[in-house]
Every structure is written in C-alpha cells, then in structure tokens.
Write a structure and sequence with these properties.
There is one protein chain. Helix 9 runs antiparallel to helix 10 and helix 9 crosses helix 11. The relative contact order is 0.17. The protein is of the alpha+beta class. The N and C termini lie far apart (50 Å). It is built from 12 helices and 8 strands. The strands form 2 sheets. Strands 1, 2, 4, 5 and 6 form a 5-stranded mixed beta sheet that branches.
Length: 316
C-alpha cells in the first residue's frame, strides 16, 4: 500500500546517511575536487545580456517546493509563493550581475556559487570514497538564474549540431535515442553477412573534468554571445565547496574546474563541450544523451577495423 501511495504522491524515502567520521567530510571534499587545476581566466569584450521580468516571474513560479534548500537556506516554497513580488527585484539583480563584468573581476556573487555536498551511500559496507554519491545542494534562486541563461544559450545554438545528441533538443528524449539505436541495428542486420557491435560508455566524473576556459572557447565557436561565454566562465570558476555529514562540515575548497552536478546548466554544458565527438566512419554511429554514450558499429563481411579504430580513438 505504501509503495502505491509513494508512487502517486511522488514521495520517496530519504536515502541512508553515511557515517559521521570526523575526518570523512574533508577526505570526501578532497576526493570530489581531485580534478581541480588552476586555470587563467581571461574575459573577452562584454556584450550585455538582458533578461525580462516576465521570464523571471515564470521561472520563479515553476520552482519545485519539495526541492531541498541550498547553502543559503532559502526554501523554494517561499520563492514560488512570492514570485509576483520578487520578480521585479530579481530581474534587476540578475541584469546587474550580467552587466558588471566591465567594472568588476566577477559577475556571479560567491554566495550564489557556493555548493554544499551531502554524501549518500551507494552501497554498504564502504570500501572506498567512490562508494559515496555526492548530492550537491546549490541556492535555488541560482538554479532559476541558470534556467534563464540556459534558455538564452539554447536559443542561440546552431541547427547543425550533432544530430546523434538527443539531450536538450526540442521533441527529443531517451526514447528517441533508443529507437534510433534499434533502427540502425535492425536495418543493418537485414543485409547478408552482417552483425552489430555496441560499446556503452560511462564517463567517470564526466562533469568534474570540464575545464571552463576550453568550454567557453568551444561555445564561442558555436556562435554563443561573448556576454554569455563570460558569464559561464565566471560561473564555473571560484566556486566554494564543502561537505556536510550530520553536524560535521569540512573545510571549504574553491574549485576552478568542473561543472557541478547539482547545477541546472551542467548537462547542457557537457553536451556542448562534446558536440564534435562524432563518428569518423560511415559504418559507425556515436549516439549520445548528455554524457551517456553508445558507439554502434555496423559490421559487414567480418571487417571490424573501422569500429576498432573508432573505439581506440574514444578511449585513448
């Protein structure tokens, strides 16, 4: 009965918390920041982006009140119920942030970039730090800001992006990615002396390896406005992060690498970073949904050379 109620109400039991070892928060913080590297941040000439009050109000009204509050402890319910009163205020604030780059070295306030990570056990007993899943909490109002920026990015994307990337495209879903994979495979198998090989790739800590400077260079080549590239570069650098386990909190680490998994923009940014990861040979297809990747090799007459070359290139 309770399973039925939870399914109808979309209510899920809280995941088990991890042990409150005093040294564990700092150990996990260092582990999650292991890809950190110092990057020289250089901003281009700024072209100011402007958000409208109608868009800000709509975004505030769509906040999920059940989502946990971020490090600022401002609940989503308050922001949603006061959307009408707050829309004008936050429109001014957001637009000020977007226009400050010429005057200040940062345009995203530190308090909005702060992340608190709550580690949740993947399995028990624990054998290594990787057995903890990082659940990142960021300010809900910052998630709203990200959604507004994401809308601007998607509006500017060229239609010539990889057609085999099924994330963040209108009227596309995981079902379309699966259907395409099956269609390519079954159509090929109708021919004589053929078979199909597939490699399913799970990128380890994919978002954590993003170097912001490289990302914004690619975004610029895709035609994204300079103001957006500058905003993204600042958003992804100088991010304070700490781990909280029960009543224990680690020391703060400032990150200049990665797109945090708790952020709205991270999957889209990873998708754009890897948009040029396409198949070299016509007999191969690289099908993607954000960071979930499948290499499909359509083999004929027992010749796997093209497929093996593709796999070696991806795993090098």
């Amino acid at each position: 009965m309770w399973q039925g109620i939870q399914s109808i109400t979309n209510n899920r039991p809280a995941p088990p918390a991890c042990d409150s070892d005093a040294s564990l928060p700092n150990a996990l913080n260092n582990f999650y920041a292991r890809f950190e590297a110092q990057n020289d941040v250089t901003y281009s000439e700024n072209q100011v982006l402007c958000l409208t009050m109608a868009d800000v109000r709509k975004t505030l009204c769509r906040i999920n009140p059940r989502k946990a509050a971020g490090p600022d402890n401002i609940p989503g319910r308050v922001l949603r119920e006061c959307a009408e009163q707050l829309a004008d205020v936050f429109t001014d604030i957001f637009n000020i942030f977007l226009s400050m780059l010429k005057m200040l070295p940062t345009i995203v306030p530190m308090c909005l970039k702060t992340t608190t990570i709550i580690p949740v056990l993947k399995k028990s007993p624990v054998s290594c730090l990787n057995d903890y899943r990082p659940v990142a909490l960021t300010p809900i109002i910052m998630k709203c800001f990200e959604r507004l920026v994401m809308r601007q990015i998607k509006h500017l994307l060229p239609p010539s992006l990889d057609p085999m990337q099924f994330a963040y495209h209108p009227n596309r879903s995981t079902d379309d990615a699966i259907s395409t994979t099956l269609h390519l495979s079954l159509t090929h198998l109708e021919n004589k002396d053929t078979y199909v090989r597939m490699l399913f790739i799970n990128f380890s800590s994919a978002f954590n390896t993003i170097i912001p400077q490289h990302l914004t260079e690619k975004l610029s080549l895709l035609g994204i406005k300079t103001s957006l590239c500058n905003w993204i570069l600042d958003f992804l650098t100088g991010r304070p992060q700490s781990i909280r386990i029960g009543n224990s909190t680690s020391s703060t680490t400032t990150l200049n690498t990665a797109a945090p998994q708790g952020c709205v923009l991270s999957p889209l940014l990873f998708t754009l970073l890897t948009h040029d990861c396409t198949a070299m040979h016509s007999s191969n297809h690289i099908i993607k949904f954000a960071d979930d990747t499948t290499v499909v090799g359509l083999i004929s007459k027992n010749d796997e050379s093209a497929y093996r070359e593709e796999v070696q290139r991806l795993t090098a």
